[in-house]
Write a structure and sequence with these properties.
The chain is an all-alpha fold. Helix content is 73%, strand content 0%. Among the domains are: 26-67, no CATH class; 74-110. The chain has 8 helices and no strands.
């Protein structure tokens, strides 16, 4: 799931950074009007363009708004904090139980495995150098 979220994030960043085609929307508007662009279409298209600086300023204002959310809604933030704390405690508790269980299973597996399988593994050794490489 995290892969999907990361992929969606980076695709959004990529789509934002790629330049828009100059004819974006022009073909659609012309198709609706029988091949004729409506009056003022070029002016409207120029007004709707957002530059990188303006986008950065909008993002900064949005971040400030998000940061001020708890000041405007303290009861929501208190409840959210309590829920986040509960989820964190549950995750820690059950995660530690899972680690203990996995550790016990690993110990059981090591005790049940024969000593030959654990210590007497054969390792492939390289063969002696052939006549072709000995002179090099």
């Amino acid at each position: 799931m995290s892969f999907v979220l990361r992929a969606a994030f980076w695709l959004t960043v990529l789509a934002f950074l790629l330049p828009a085609p100059e004819h974006e929307g022009a073909a659609q508007a012309a198709a609706r009007n029988g091949g004729v662009l409506p009056a003022g279409f070029e002016a409207a298209a120029i007004e709707n363009e957002i530059g990188a600086g303006e986008a950065l300023a909008l993002a900064a204002r949005s971040a400030q708004d998000v940061m001020g959310f708890c000041g405007r809604n303290p009861e929501v933030c208190e409840k959210s904090s309590a829920i986040a704390g509960h989820v964190m405690r549950q995750t820690t508790h059950y995660g530690s139980l899972a680690i203990v269980w996995l550790t016990e299973k690993a110990k059981e597996y090591q005790q049940e495995a024969p000593a030959e399988a654990m210590g007497a593994r054969t390792v492939a050794r390289p063969q002696a150098a052939s006549d072709f490489t000995t002179g090099a």
